[in-house]
Amino acid sequence: QLQASGGGLVQAGGSLRLSCVVSGLTFNGLTVGWFRQAPGKEREFVATIRYNGAKYYGDSVKGRFTISRDTPKNTVYLQMNSLEPEDTADYYCAAGSPILSAAASVNGYRHWGQGTQVTVSS
User: For FRET with 42, which of 88, 91, 100, 102 sits at 20 to 30 Å CA-CA?
Assistant: First the structure.
């Protein structure tokens, strides 16, 4: 139901754009978020865009990453600029209807896609 893509290998300072295509769900009413998980670490909130267009970002990516949604395509994008080696992780998109206070929590999302790997070399 969620298909993430766009990961890859990039040098520090470079850019990538991740895509998350949502199917089988009512896209207009969904909040769609991105989380990431590095080896040996817990899954971390990256960004989310709520059904009303409001956007929220994790502190570590503010000013570098931009989340957006294309409703006709049922797709959410994560534009990642000025990438750093610390951004290396598997990136997951997730969808649900979390209350605002849960929008940055993995527990706020019912549907998850498979991860797409991002590797940033120094």
Answer: 100
